[in-house]
Specification:
This protein has helices at residues 2-16, 38-53, 56-67, 81-85, 94-107, 125-140, 159-175, 221-229, 236-265, 286-292, 303-321, 339-347, 352-358, 377-394, 434-438; strands at 20-28, 71-78, 111-118, 144-152, 156-158, 187-191, 212-219, 269-273, 366-372, 398-405, 413-415, 422-424, 442-443. By secondary structure, it is an alpha/beta fold. Strands 1, 2, 3, 4, 5, 6, 7, 8, 9, 10 and 13 form an eleven-stranded mixed beta sheet that branches. Strands 11-12 form a two-stranded antiparallel sheet. Helix 8 (221-229) runs antiparallel to helix 9.
């Protein structure tokens, strides 16, 4: 009876509560594609991606049809391109981005991540070239995603990189100005980036990863909310227990899909990221989970505590269900991609500063937030620095995916479409941090980073 109950419960989670596999992401190492000739390197990159990923989408579709579990996205992550392209001697890496984009189109994935650089302690020549290439690369490609890691808990914060990323984000916003600065939606600035994250736009295939691997990202905000609806008025430890049990079931579904994709493609299964990733659809919102706990609106006092409970319970439930939990795993709070977050911003309950406070306990950070297009480079850099400090001090991953929407101001709305949704333009602090940002240098690692 228990077996049948679990089967029917899972079917209900899929049909009524929007449980899905958000992404199966194939990580591919490009280390052996390094060549002193850029043309030869790009040829190797293209051929290797095609060779490994040519059946990824078909296999994902087969499993979706056979098991009845929706698999929303099929994606690829590659070795940070700055590490690969630097041997070419070229002074612009946009052609590398075009190669990634073409390969992604040929195999049919919706995004390919890894146009990336790791500069937490300083720049190589290749790092600088890649970062300077980001605005053009994201504007001229459709499926390429980019990330830059500017800090970690062992190295501190590279403030020269922070300042540079303020300029890069503004330039990216301008080049894609006719699409509500959409290019910035494909660019993430990290502290403590992880090497096995399957979610875009921040995915890349770390140098410590295998030659090729399958990582799976699961999602189920609707299933968690439904579980909490059955526990109205219960104390919070009971709420946490319900979330754990639901996360366990969600993770088991992801484990099943990951193992099957791995078997059919003959590629090792890596990790299962069980982050609750919302969408703009009603019933698929992290904000509504927090409100189900008893908050009148997401963003009111108590929201950070509720999010901490949610994030921790999701991790505990997932770890019980799989020995392969990794990536980020917890709860995402992207404004434009969450129907409840959008409404909370519009009502005035959720402010920029409250979002920053919430990032101290969630999976990532300030995500898919639209701000006025005339926001200065130094203010954007200061936002990145604040978020990096939260990550470095707390020894956790934090990130900024922020969109200064060219030509728009507070009161306007940016339209991104699809899973990226839409976002009201949020105000930022009008006082300047320019002198602080222009100091450059490095914010040293915190004292508790010395653990050896």
């Amino acid at each position: 009876m228990t077996l049948y109950h679990n089967i029917f419960e899972t079917i209900s989670m899929i049909e009524k509560e929007k449980l899905d596999i958000r992404t199966i992401t194939m990580g591919i190492s490009l280390i052996d594609c390094i060549d002193s000739s850029g043309d030869k390197a790009r040829g190797k990159i293209h051929d290797k991606i095609i060779r490994y990923a040519m059946n990824l989408v078909n296999v994902g579709n087969e499993i979706e049809n056979e098991f009845g579990i929706p698999i929303i996205n099929k994606r690829i992550a590659v070795t940070p391109v700055a590490l690969i392209a630097s041997a070419s001697g070229e002074d612009n890496y946009v052609e590398f981005a075009r190669t990634l984009d073409q390969a992604a189109k040929e195999v049919g994935v919706n995004f390919i991540g890894g146009f990336s650089a790791l500069v937490q302690k300083g720049f190589t020549a290749g790092d600088r070239i890649l970062i300077e290439s980001i605005p053009q690369a994201l504007n001229e490609t459709e499926r390429v995603c980019s990330s830059v890691n500017i800090a970690n808990s062992k190295a501190g914060i590279n403030m020269d990189a922070v300042r540079l990323m303020g300029k890069i984000i503004k330039r990216t916003a301008y080049l894609s100005r006719y699409r509500d600065s959409l290019g910035c939606a494909k660019l993430v600035v990290f502290a403590n980036a992880v090497e096995d994250n399957p979610f875009m736009a921040g995915a890349f295939h770390g140098v410590g990863e295998p030659e090729v691997v399958i990582n799976v990202g699961v999602s189920g905000p609707g299933a968690v909310k439904r579980a909490l609806e059955k526990a109205k008025g219960e104390p919070l430890h009971v709420v946490a227990e319900n979330i754990k049990k639901t996360a366990f079931k969600i993770t088991r579904a992801g484990q099943l899909v990951g193992n099957e994709v791995s078997r059919r493609l003959g590629v090792p299964f890596g990790i299962l990221d069980l982050s609750l990733a919302p969408t703009p659809e009603i019933g698929d919102s992290v904000a509504r989970i927090l409100e189900e706990m008893g908050l009148e609106a997401c963003g009111t006092h108590g929201t950070t505590a509720a999010l901490a409970l949610l994030n921790d319970a999701v991790k505990k439930g997932g770890i019980m269900a799989s020995s392969s939990v990794g990536g980020l795993s917890g709860a995402f709070i992207p404004v434009s991609e969450d129907e409840g977050m959008i409404q909370a911003v519009k009502s005035g309950a959720l402010t920029f500063d409250k979002l920053e406070a919430m990032t101290s306990v969630c999976s990532v950070g300030l995500d898919m937030i639209a701000i006025p297009g005339d926001t200065s480079e130094s203010t954007i850099a200061a936002i990145i620095a604040d978020e990096a400090a939260i990550g470095v001090i707390n020894n956790k991953t934090t990130a900024v995916r922020i969109i200064p929407v060219h030509g728009k101001d507070v009161g306007d709305t940016a339209e991104f479409g699809g899973l990226l949704g839409h976002a009201p333009i949020m105000p930022v602090n009008k006082f300047s941090a320019e002198e602080f940002i222009n100091r450059g240098g490095r914010i040293p690692a915190p004292i508790h980073s010395f653990r050896n």
